[in-house]
Structure formats: C-alpha cells, structure tokens
Specification:
With about 280 residues, this protein is of the alpha/beta class. The protein is about 40% helix and about 20% strand. The chain contains ten helices and nine strands. β8 and β9 form a beta hairpin. Bound molecules: adenosine monophosphate (AMP).
Length: about 280
C-alpha cells in the first residue's frame, strides 16, 4: 500500500492508475477505522480495480465547541487495517493543502442539508460537501463508498453528484453494528462502559418504533411520542432529534407509508450519537 500526503504525489499516482485504465474506488473517512469503515473498503475492493482511502478530520465540518480537537486518532492502526483490506493508496491530506490561506469556495446542497443533523449542526453539511467535492476532484474515483449510518450524508452527496454532473457512482453500504446493536462509530470510543450500555438505546428504540409500525400504527406523531418516551427511560440519554421522514426527500410525513426513514441523534452523556432505519411500509 502506498501512502501519500501531498497533492502532487496523489495526482501523479492517480494519473498512473488512469493510464492503466483501472477503475478507482474511493472511501473517504476521518480515520480511527472500525468494522463499519472496513466494510466499505471491502465492498470498494470487490467493485473496483484500485482502492483509495483517505483519512482527514475535516475542520470545516465541525462547529466551534464540537469534538474537532479530541477526535480519536490511530494512524498506525489505521494504516495496518487499510493495508490488510487491500487498500492500494492511503491519502492523508494536509490541512494546509486542502484549505490554503485565502480559501473561500464552498459547495452547498440546499434543502436536504437543512433538516435533521443540519438543524442541530448548522454548517456541518456545507463542510462535508465541500471536502468531498475536493477529494472527488483529486482522487477522480469511478465509485465512492459511503455508509448508511450517515443516511442524510448519503442523500446529500448523491444529490451533489447528480446536480453537479459529477462523473462517478455513489455506493451506499449497510450499517455495521456491534453484537448489542450499537452502530459502530469512531465516537463510541468516548463512551465509558456504563455509557456504552446506555447507547444501545438508540438501536433498541429503532426496533421499538419498527414494531409499532409493524403492528399497524400509521400516525408518525404517535410513533415519535412513544419512541421518545421509550428513550427517556434511559437516564443517560438525551434526545437531540427523533424524526420520521420520507426516505428520499427527508421531508416530514403526515402518514406512515412508502419508504420512510426513522432517524435520531441522541446524546449519551456528552457524546452525540446518530442512528437510523429505513422501512418500506
Ligand atoms: P467517518 O470516518 O465517521 O467520517 O465515516 C467514514 C465513512 O464510514 C462514512 O461513509 C460513514 O457513513 C461510514 N461508516 C461509519 N460508521 C459506519 C457503520 N457503523 N457502518 C457502515 N458505515 C459506516
């Protein structure tokens, strides 16, 4: 596995791969790789000829007071894990290369970026779409792989690719969970053992909502209310949002039917976690 940190090195390698007519698969990450990330790498490896992974904790998607400064890192471990999965090129962008002094251009997907996480983390998705756009321009992937764990991010990136005529396919991969149902996340490392147990309430609440719907409940407000009270029985959990929305527009629904997304962000102690479930009703 090759490792590059500068843009000229990256471009040289990408040019070489393109000259060999190989297809490029790309998995952008913020590092501290876990099985969720690795599932993306494996799928990319199967679907393309040359696998590029990036690790970059993108400062412009963090608001002041969020966890940018303490975001977990393990470059040696990540390098070993990526190599183990057959990653061909690990790109570790330098902050000053992606955002040189005087940088003023941003990419924004309106509408989809303004609900759910966009409401509680204003500016977050603008940071995500801007960096993903830059990384797409640099890596020139044929396919880019994202996790359903970040359902809203997947929709926003697909919309950006479509609206801006980008020449690549976005592949969405299923959520990978711990045995107890907790969706894998680098941020789970912030949790102590009591909080880890409490954090299972996210997935349990999704199953609870799913059961209500399977039993015939069709009023989103009722499902929301009952699920919120299910979560509130966990003393360490504080709901940031819990919403039932249309799974492609992310707009609120008057009745539970068709493809819906149940999405939530919950604080467990000081740690903010997200999870979601798509249901076809
Ligand atoms: P991150 O490093 O958190 O920015 O995540 C990088 C990519 O991995 C994103 O596309 C995430 O959606 C995906 N990802 C993170 N956690 C999981 C998970 N538990 N299952 C599947 N994909 C995930």
């Amino acid at each position: 596995m090759k490792k590059v940190c500068t843009i000229p090195e990256l471009k040289r390698e990408i040019r070489r791969v393109k000259d060999e007519h190989k297809t490029i698969g790309f998995v952008p990450t913020m590092g501290f790789l876990h099985e969720g990330h690795l599932s993306l790498l494996r799928k990319a490896k199967r679907q393309t000829d040359y696998l590029v992974t990036s690790i970059f904790v993108n400062p412009i998607q963090f608001a002041p007071g969020e966890d940018l400064d303490k975001y977990p890192q393990d470059l040696d471990g990540d390098t070993a894990r990526a190599a183990q999965e057959g990653c061909d090129l690990l790109y570790l962008p330098r902050k000053e290369d992606l955002y040189p002094p005087g940088f003023t251009s941003y990419v924004e997907v309106s509408g989809l970026s303004e609900t759910l996480c966009g409401k509680t983390r204003p500016g977050h998705f603008r940071g995500v779409t801007t960096v993903v756009n830059k990384l797409f321009n640099l890596v020139e992937p044929d396919r880019a792989f994202f996790g359903q764990k970040d359902a809203q991010q997947c929709l926003i990136i697909k919309k950006m690719v479509e609206d801006l005529d980008m020449n690549l396919k976005v592949v969405v991969c299923p959520i990978v969970r711990e045995k107890n149902g907790l969706a894998m996340s680098s941020r789970n490392s912030y949790l102590d053992s009591r909080e880890k147990e409490a954090a299972t309430v996210l997935y349990r609440s999704l199953l609870f909502a799913e059961r209500l719907i399977e039993q015939g409940e069709r009023d989103p407000a009722t499902v929301r209310e009952k699920t919120a009270s299910f979560i509130s029985r966990e003393p360490l959990a504080k709901i940031e949002y819990l919403e039932l929305v249309n799974s492609s527009s992310l707009k609120g629904i008057a009745e539970i039917k068709g493809n819906i997304l149940i999405a939530l962000a919950v604080r467990i102690g000081r740690t903010r976690l997200i999870d979601n479930m798509i249901m076809e009703v």
